[in-house]
Amino acid sequence: MNLLMVGINHRTAPVEVREKLAFSDENVSQAYAYFREKGFNEIVLLSTCNRTEIYLTRAEKIPLKVVARWWASFFNQDPEEVFPHLYQKEGEEAVRHLFRVACGLDSMMLGETQIHGQVREAYQFALEGRWVGPFLGEVFRRALKVGRRARAETAISKGALSVGGAAVELAKRIFADLRTCSVLLIGAGKMGKDTARALIRSGCRDLLVCNRTFEKALALANELGGQVIPFERLAEQLISADVIIASTGATQYLVTRATVQEAVTQRGGRPLFFIDIAVPRNIDPEVGRIETVFLFDIDDLERIVDTYVQERQGEVQKVEHLIEQELSNFQTWLGERKAKPLLLALVHQAQEMSRQAADNLFKELPHLSDKERQVIRAKMHALAMRLFHRPLSQIKRLAEKDGLLSTAQELLLDPECVVSDKVKEDESEKGKSEEVSHEPVFFRRPDSSRDGLP
């Protein structure tokens, strides 16, 4: 199998482009089925406010531009307009990229911790839907592991400015005293909740929570010490609220220019501050053109975050070292997985050779008791396995280099050695569950010039 990752993020495209290719709660299951129909074996879709990435495996390689065209077509977008904003990674580079994402090295806010949970949720969703198998599942499990190590063994996330922290910095530039400001939270997602909590901790007074699902709004309001506002009363709350945080999975604007314009006329000149951290956006960008209204989206927060990045740059090298360690461990696992059929064959060969040698010996020594025969069989089997120990260890290393595995098979396997039917049956049943016949053979380092789409 071949591993491919195609993505778009805050570095390659503005939010108005990213939102057109973002998978939502409403279409993500459909997207999984769509890519499965295209012939991909394992699939994980990672979609956050700053990135959307598709991780895919397939038996044969497929032109990257074709995958990108399928992605664009799923959202009824013009592929030619999408191509310039996409990036791609294959094989080892795709694994390394995911490790960096899970560690927060590829985030808009260096070292931010939320992405680790988002990677975990994406993997869990794919696992529960049976879209991910043993190979891609191992890639994501190891990505989550290195993400945990990065936060436990380095200071990459200490003092990291979150989305909520950036929102607070912006609010302080607009309002002289946050203690006079009330907050309206639209949506019940984690990022919106964290932003609202940061504003409340910084002094903002009343918190209002508005969500289409009343039960979710009530639970969040109780958690943060706020009040619930029915969704149908959202427009009238714009008159009294000062800071509005929008973070829902809606695919259409929840707040329009006309609605805000009407609220502004009744606010007596008081500024109105919108933080739209949803992708797709929840607030019409035209709202930002209204006088006394300040609208910031997820991309705007990057300028606030940049001033804090330098403090954590010194930890990047430490995290990169951890990533290379885990990548090496993954290569070892992959080599063992690729070599497994040969390893099993050699073990079978050792067992068969020791069995045949014992049978020949017993013909020459017919007087041996059953107990003595059992002892001899056990000793000869142990000796055979000791003789094969070093070749088995070396094969695991050879498996990482293309071509050497087949050479080792030709040199080490005895074509006249017959594996017992019983052993064949046992290993056949194991093979069905472990899919040993579909080993991914791809670990070549791609040329750096091939990072972009063709």
List the helices and strands and how they pair.
Layout: E1 2-9, H1 15-18, H2 28-37, E2 42-47, E3 51-58, H3 64-74, H4 79-82, E4 87-90, H5 91-103, H6 114-128, H7 134-153, H8 163-174, E5 183-186, H9 190-201, E6 207-210, H10 214-224, E7 227-229, H11 234-237, E8 243-246, H12 257-264, E9 272-276, E10 293-297, H13 301-309, H14 313-364, H15 370-398, H16 404-412, H17 421-434
Parallel strand pairs: 5-6, 5-8, 6-7, 8-9, 9-10
Antiparallel strand pairs: 1-3, 1-4, 2-3
Helix pairs in contact: 5-7, 5-14, 6-7, 7-14, 8-9, 8-13, 14-15
Specify the helix fraction band. Answer: 40-55%
Summarize the main sheet: 6 strands, parallel
The end-to-end span amounts to 21 Å
Name the CATH architecture of the largest domain: 2-Layer Sandwich
Supply the number of helical segments: 17
SS class = alpha/beta
Could you report the average pLDDT, rounded to the nearest whole number? 83
What is the molecular shape?
Answer: elongated
Strand content: 5-15%
Task: List segments where confidence is low: pLDDT < 50 over at least 5 consecutive residues.
Answer: 416-454
Order of helices and strands: EHHEEHHEHHHHEHEHEHEHEEHHHHH
Compute the number of strand runs.
Answer: 10
**CATH class descriptor of the largest domain:** Alpha Beta
In angstroms, what is the radius of gyration? 29 Å
The structural domain count equals 3
CATH superfamily of the largest domain: Glutamyl-tRNA reductase, N-terminal domain
CATH topology grouping of the largest domain: Beta Polymerase, domain 2
Biggest sheet strand order reads 7-6-5-8-9-10
